[in-house]
């Protein structure tokens, strides 16, 4: 019999559960929370309440879709950090209770480590070492992965994350939250070189996106609403192009510094078609091997928690039942 793990993700505004056996994903269920749209961002208290409503049916569905019973489980993995404290607590308490009642080990997973290891889900996957550009709503990192559990952050944002840059500029353009996917959609019909926005000059492998937001803000303040509406596609394409260039330039630097030529992307922003196409073109030009997970494994999901949980299970890295999600999490 293989190792079967139930994984739970509840760090932000998706309640998700997945089951994997020996690293193969058997089910992957996600309930997204539409309640935040009207507020233009995630409202932490509403997120926790929605997790409480969703967690039992989502886990139930994941178990049924995997065609297993609770007695088949060998461990429970869950996202221990980082994330919204109230949201994390719902998943943590649920995972703890289930592990206690089934008398099976509990595995705490770092959400950002899981985004990187989402690249180990598809059959076409990188070997070690590889580089991963993890770009989400809260993080922007370049990670050097030497083995599943040996991950080092070699560059990261010093202010906003790439997802925030998308969402905040989208808001300035009058688009609803989350604006990242909408910028992507409008950008498809736009000219990426029509407008020029500031690109930061940050040393090393670190990123900065706050200057871009200010540059877009100052530009838009000088325009009429009619101009913005009639140039929306070009504005979106130009913003997207600037963000993608900032990301790709640092990736080139990271490959040059490490001489690692297997390059992956992860996190919600890796669903962006400009980034995906840009990375594929760059990889072909530079002779890199590029790995891009399916959309469903890019944005928050529990399959990535399951695969990370599986590798931690193999190393017997279990959590004590006194796990506290407000404590600083180790990878
Ligand atoms: O990884 P994720 O699902 O959640 C976090 O852990 O933050 O990332 C969410 C972020 C949001 O900022 C969202 O706007 C962005 O990913 N995003 C996109 C696209 N799809 C999601 N940004 C640009 N283009 C997309 N297609
Ligand atoms: Zn995430």
Describe, in plain words, how this protein is organized in 3D.
By secondary structure, the protein is an alpha/beta fold. It folds into 2 domains: 4-116 and 298-314, Nucleotidyltransferase, domain 5 (2-Layer Sandwich); 126-292, 2-Layer Sandwich (Nucleotidyltransferase, domain 5). Helix content is 43%, strand content 19%. It contains 11 helices and 10 strands. The strands form 2 sheets. The protein has a 5-stranded mixed sheet, sandwiched between helices. Helix 4 (162-172) packs antiparallel against helix 8 (232-258) and helix 5 (180-187) crosses helix 8 (232-258). The longest helix is centred in the C-terminal third of the chain and has 27 residues, at 232-258. The mean pLDDT is 94.
Write the topology of this structure.
Elements: E1 4-9, E2 14-21, E3 24-32, H1 44-65, E4 75-81, H2 85-102, E5 106-110, H3 111-117, E6 130-135, E7 140-147, E8 150-156, H4 162-172, H5 180-187, H6 210-221, H7 225-230, H8 232-258, E9 262-266, H9 273-286, E10 289-291, H10 295-298, H11 303-314
Parallel strand pairs: 1-4, 4-5, 6-9, 9-10
Antiparallel strand pairs: 1-2, 2-3, 6-7, 7-8
Helix pairs in contact: 1-2, 3-11, 4-6, 4-8, 5-8, 8-9
Bound molecules: 5'-O-[(R)-(carboxyoxy)(hydroxy)phosphoryl]adenosine and zinc ion (ZN).
Keywords summarizing the entry:
alpha/beta; Nucleotidyltransferase, domain 5; 2 domains; five-stranded mixed sheet; binds 5'-O-[(R)-(carboxyoxy)(hydroxy)phosphoryl]adenosine; binds zinc ion
């Amino acid at each position: 019999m293989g190792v079967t793990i139930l994984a739970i993700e509840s760090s932000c505004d998706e309640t998700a559960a997945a089951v994997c056996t020996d690293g193969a994903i058997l089910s992957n269920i996600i309930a997204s929370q539409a309640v935040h749209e009207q507020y233009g961002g995630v409202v932490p208290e509403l997120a926790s309440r929605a997790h409480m409503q969703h967690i039992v049916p989502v886990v139930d569905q994941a178990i049924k879709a995997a065609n297993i019973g609770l007695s088949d489980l060998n461990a429970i993995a869950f996202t221990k950090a980082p994330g919204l404290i109230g949201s994390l607590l719902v998943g943590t308490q649920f995972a703890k209770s289930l592990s206690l009642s089934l008398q099976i080990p509990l595995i705490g997973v770092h959400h950002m480590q899981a985004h990187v290891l989402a690249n180990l889900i598809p059959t076409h996957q990188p070997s070690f070492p590889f580089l991963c550009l993890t770009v989400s709503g809260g993080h922007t990192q370049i990670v050097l992965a030497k083995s599943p559990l040996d991950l080092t952050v070699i560059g990261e944002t010093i202010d906003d994350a790439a997802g925030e840059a998308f969402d905040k500029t989208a808001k300035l353009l009058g688009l609803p939250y989350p604006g990242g996917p909408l910028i992507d959609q409008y950008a498809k019909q736009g000219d990426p070189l029509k407008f020029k926005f500031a690109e930061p000059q940050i040393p090393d492998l670190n990123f900065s996106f706050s200057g871009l937001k200010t540059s877009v803000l100052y530009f838009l303040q000088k325009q009429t609403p009619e101009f913005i509406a009639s140039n929306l596609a070009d504005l979106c394409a130009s913003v997207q192009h600037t963000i993608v260039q900032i990301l790709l330039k640092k990736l080139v630097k990271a490959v040059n510094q490490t001489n690692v030529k297997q390059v992956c992307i992860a996190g919600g922003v890796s669903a962006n078609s400009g980034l995906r196409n840009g990375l594929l073109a760059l990889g072909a030009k530079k002779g890199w091997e590029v790995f891009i997970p399916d959309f469903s494994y890019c944005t928050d999901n529990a399959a990535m928690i399951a695969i990370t949980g599986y590798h931690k299970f193999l190393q017997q890295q279990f959590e004590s039942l006194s796990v506290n999600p407000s404590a600083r999490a180790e990878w």
